[in-house]
Design a protein that fits this description.
about 325 residues; alpha/beta; D-Maltodextrin-Binding Protein, domain 2; 3 domains; 13 strands; about 20% strand
């Protein structure tokens, strides 16, 4: 009996020993996994610090002017982040979406439709939205010439219209939805109402086409003539005959997979541009007065318009 008790104690002690060793092994694994996760995060941040940030700009105006304004902003943003920033001026709207999708850019200034498409196709995440005149929304206008131009929407029937780009919010999407809801354009085809519809590629280009009488009407955002037409005489020749409902302002988003800490740093750095140094740079870039925090839900009205037109980003 004594021998049995001794053996029982020994066996019980062995089980306790194994449980203790198992706990140590599990604890060691957890510590190792945590350390590995920290190292991966650190390595990702270190790699980003070494390579810097690539910033993409949507081509809403003359590429040369955009390059100049973008370079100044990138330099200032790089100082605030203590990271080098490489600038990429896309050739078209689809180029920005594709760059976010293949992760060749980290941060992009995008118009509303481009963000909606990039969030769906590339899991991009909005950080900030633009403010103009204290407002976080804008509209699209149908610009015509004061002298001899159409006076009403109905008078546009059989005329020639200049759009910006198939993915442009104020330069195509909202004007098309506006015309469709009024029963003027049928089946998502502008040629059911207009004699001809052209895409000029940039907001300044559609306005210049109108001023040169190459088209009868041009669509763009409200302050486009004031910011994109250099000659006061050209601006004075234009008026508008219709305006869409409000559109959420453009903003800046980040690609999927960017380190969370870096995302927060980018957001803070962008919002810091609301100071006396940053505001003129934003103004020169996209006629922006300031930046505010943005959420994905802010762009739900744009999603409705995108779905109405069954839009998908062009494949490149």
């Amino acid at each position: 009996m004594g021998e049995w008790k001794t053996r029982g104690i020994a066996r019980d002690g062995g089980r306790r020993g194994r449980r203790y060793r198992n706990r140590r092994w599990v604890a060691a694994c957890l510590v190792t996994c945590f350390a590995a996760a920290v190292w991966v995060g650190f390595s990702r941040e270190s790699a980003q610090a070494a390579t810097g940030i690539t910033l993409a700009l949507t081509p809403s105006k003359d590429p040369t002017l955009l390059q100049e304004a973008g370079t100044a902003l990138a330099q200032e943003l790089g100082k605030r982040l203590d990271l080098p920033i490489k600038l990429y001026v896309a050739s078209d709207y689809a180029g920005v979406i594709e760059a976010l999708r293949n992760q060749t850019v980290d941060l992009a200034f995008v118009h509303p439709v481009a963000y909606v498409l990039a969030s769906r196709e590339a899991k991009a995440r909005i950080l900030v939205k633009s403010l103009r005149g204290g407002s976080a929304s804008y509209t699209a206008r149908f610009f015509v010439l004061k002298d001899g131009g159409p006076k009403t929407l109905e008078e546009l029937r059989g005329k020639t219209i200049a759009f910006v780009d198939p993915a442009s919010t104020s330069g195509y999407i909202y004007p098309m939805v506006f015309l469709m809801k009024r029963g003027l354009v049928k089946g998502k085809d502008p040629r059911t109402f207009f004699r001809e519809a052209v895409f000029s590629g940039a907001h300044d280009a559609v306005l210049h086409a109108l001023v040169r009488r190459q088209v009868d009407v041009a669509v763009s955002y409200p302050h486009a003539p004031d910011t994109l037409l250099k000659e006061p005489g050209q601006r004075a020749r234009l008026t508008y005959i219709a305006e869409t409902p409000p559109i959420p302002n453009d903003g800046a988003c980040v690609r999927d997979g960017l380190a969370p800490d870096l995302v927060q740093r980018l957001k803070a750095a962008l919002l810091s541009l609301n100071d006396p140094v940053g505001r003129p740079l934003l103004k020169h870039l996209y006629a922006v007065d300031g930046l505010a925090e943005a959420t994905d839900a802010d762009f739900d009205p744009v999603r409705e318009a995108v779905d109405l037109l069954s839009l998908t980003p062009p494949k490149r």
